[in-house]
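Usage

Read records sequentially. Each one opens with the input sequence:
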Amino acid sequence: MNPNITRGSRIYGLLAYLYGPGRHNEHTDPHLVGSWDGFAPDPGRDPNVTLKHLANTLALRPSQLGDALHKRHVWHCSVRAAPEDRELTDREWDMIARRVLHAVGVSREGEDDGCRWVAVRHARDHIHIAATLVRGDLRKVYPRYDYPKAQAACRELEAELGLRRLNPGDRTAAKRASTGERRKAERLNLPELPSDTLRTAVRQALAAASTEEEFFARLAAARILVRHKKGPSGDVLGYSVALPDDDTPIWYAGSTLAPDLSLPKIRRALPNTMEPLSVQAARASRPEAVRRRATSRLDRAQHALARGGDDGADDLAGTGAVLDALAATANEPTRSEILQAARAFERATRSHVRAENADRRALRAAAREIIRAGTPARTTEPPPQPSSPPSSSPSPPLSAGTRPADTRSRPPQPARQPNTSALPTGWPPPPPWPPSETARPTSPPPNAPASTPPSPPHYRDPETGSAPRGRWMPSPPRSQRRRRPATTPRPCCGTRPARVNCVPP
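and closes with the structure output:
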């Protein structure tokens, strides 16, 4: 179930909508399913009761306050079930309305002198709760944090009634666009909502900025209108942004665009230390090199996230900054895809956990380097054309010891095998080369005798562990070297003076 809470000041206008046909004639059989005392007049079922009668009954106590009545004293909450849920009865909807009102503090269970309310049902899948926030003793009620409390109550009711269970809200999602904003975007044929455009611009400016002044300067360079909110002392307390193309700009506060884009949270994210020009010049390099360095930092952050813990919150924020920087500097064919990835990853960067480590600073520094390096050059080289027409038959698999052919350099060569023609008589044949050994054998040194043919590389006598006499022997690769313990006797080869722990032949 999904609750939606609004405030107003006209109880009669709200009831007229609930008992009316609706905007698209979607209201069917409007009637009461519950009230504060269970005996409220119902215009939908009693023909002798008018809508004005019910409105006057609910507005009795607010009218007694006179001028002391506060604005927005009408509390309205709609509770909607999922489309796949079963149809609830009127008695179940009455219980749901009472539980929600009790959770937000508008009306307590068993309280006779609380606020007056009614629950109206005009569809199979939802109800509307209308209440006036004045108690019987004329005390005004101010529900605090009513939306998260209503969400928590609905999560409990879903488990009790066997309905579809939604995830509990963590207050990290961006605010939904209003109906007026969506209709204006449709009327002007905008590709996306203005709030989405501004949110992306603010995130990209934050990813590239080192100080607060640079952050606002980058917003101005992106042709975004910025309005500061200042306190009595002249200090900047907040900011609002708007698009310049609109005749009547609609201003959005940073916290309205996203919870982590408010000015206090931006100040905590910025390092607030401007790098010297010498450091910026030293770090300036090609965009490709900057992206390679950012990849290594992302790999370290990925390992830190795999370990778990609260420190991963800052790694997520730094990763989101790198994605924003890549979306701002990517080429046109891939920019839209990276932008979609950055927006999908956006909510994962918001967390209530505060942690400080070097990984986030390194990732944010990588994001700044990516934006300052600019857009990488697009490769216009055409793909290599095959020398022969392609065949419909599948190509045979590569044999062991070979590598894929490079069509731009030379045709593929057959796998090399060890040369056994130079082995003395009686020596056992050498084992075949491993598949990974594809390098060309090292050529002999210049001072080697020309008459002596070279022996195969990395070959030694299995009995003595030495190479044939009078032949040059290259050293094996580091991966194939084996160290013997000092206490193990070494067999004597007879070609050099005896060593310590040398066993005579």
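Summary fields computed downstream for this record:
- DSSP finds 15 helices and ten strands in the chain.
- The CA atoms of residues 384 and 409 lie 11 Å apart.
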